[in-house]
Design a protein that fits this description.
Oligomer: single chain
Distance between the termini: 33 Å
Radius of gyration: 20 Å
Shape: globular
Number of helices: 8
Strand content: 15-25%
Strand order of the largest sheet: 2-5-6-7-8
């Protein structure tokens, strides 16, 4: 498979995969290797994430005043129940006896998100905002050597202050790899790229803040775009410049067909399709 940098629409997760391990990128996206597994009861992490994202999106979209926390908390169980009822068919899973307990736990997680993200300064204005999809403009990034790449994605939430500045929020079910070092290493590029998309592709305004919200951790991740600093790179614009440097390195690696394996910090993921033959595979912590 040939990756034409000018013809391919990239996603942040695909680019992050290359920085994490070029061999995993090649196995997953170049060869299209999919390991056949025996179906198991219960939900995969991506299904849980989909359910929680859907509830938050529907809740805020339906609210006449998305800053009215009391009303949001009042409507949360109603909207969540409808999503939960339809979830087994929509997300294709077989509920276990633990399903009712999971619903109660997730309601507490979502309540914490509503309370934790409430602000007198910021008003939610967009949810599941797409770029490079469904007719929305893609994010186009110019790199060195006359290179240009296009990105697509979905921004979970965008808030706005009284001056028209933006705050970009991305929900995560996990709690790890959401810090400044992960951006510096290039294994977590999503937040600055989404900030760039909100400004340049969607032309919604200037991004002043951005962070990941850990649903299970019930708090914001440690990376805050407003506080980012690395040498001369500061704030959202500095984080974007760091992300662009990694994009340059990724495209250089792809141009040179460099798919040498490397062990990510914390070990390799169990779902890596190359784990059965990769000579550098080192299993990471599970769970």
């Amino acid at each position: 498979t040939k990756f034409d940098q000018k013809e391919t629409d990239w996603s942040a997760s695909r680019l992050e995969t290359y920085k994490s391990c070029p061999m995993r990128f090649w196995t997953q996206y170049g060869l299209g290797v999919v390991e056949q597994r025996i179906p198991a009861l219960g939900l995969e992490s991506f299904q849980i994430g989909g359910i929680l994202h859907q509830i938050l999106e529907e809740l805020y979209r339906a609210a006449e005043d998305p800053t009215n926390v009391d009303h949001l908390l009042e409507q949360l169980p109603i909207i969540a129940l409808n999503v939960f009822d339809a979830a087994p068919d929509k997300y294709q899973f077989e509920p276990t006896v633990y399903w009712p307990t999971q619903q109660a736990e997730w309601l507490e997680i979502l309540k914490a998100a509503i309370l934790g993200l409430a602000s007198d300064e910021w008003v939610p204005i967009a949810f599941e905002e797409k770029f490079g999809m469904e007719g929305k403009p893609a994010l186009k990034i110019d790199l060195e050597n006359d290179r240009m790449i296009r990105l697509h994605g979905v921004i979970d939430r965008i808030d706005q202050d009284l001056q028209g500045n933006l705050r970009v929020i991305d929900y995560k079910t996990g709690v790890s790899h959401l810090g400044k070092d992960d951006l510096i290493q290039g294994t977590r590029l999503q937040l600055p790229l989404y900030a760039m998309a909100a400004m340049q592709a969607l032309k919604m305004g200037e991004v002043r803040e951005g962070f990941y919200w850990t649903l299970n951790g019930k708090e914001a991740g440690s990376l805050k775009l407003s506080k980012f600093q690395l040498d001369d790179f500061e704030g959202p614009s500095g984080a974007i410049q760091v992300a662009k440097l990694h994009l340059q390195m990724i495209m250089d690696g792809l141009s040179n067909a460099d798919f040498r394996p490397q062990v990510p910090e914390g070990g390799c993921p169990q779902y890596c399709g190359a784990r059965l033959w990769c000579w550098r595979y080192r299993p990471g912590r599970q769970g």
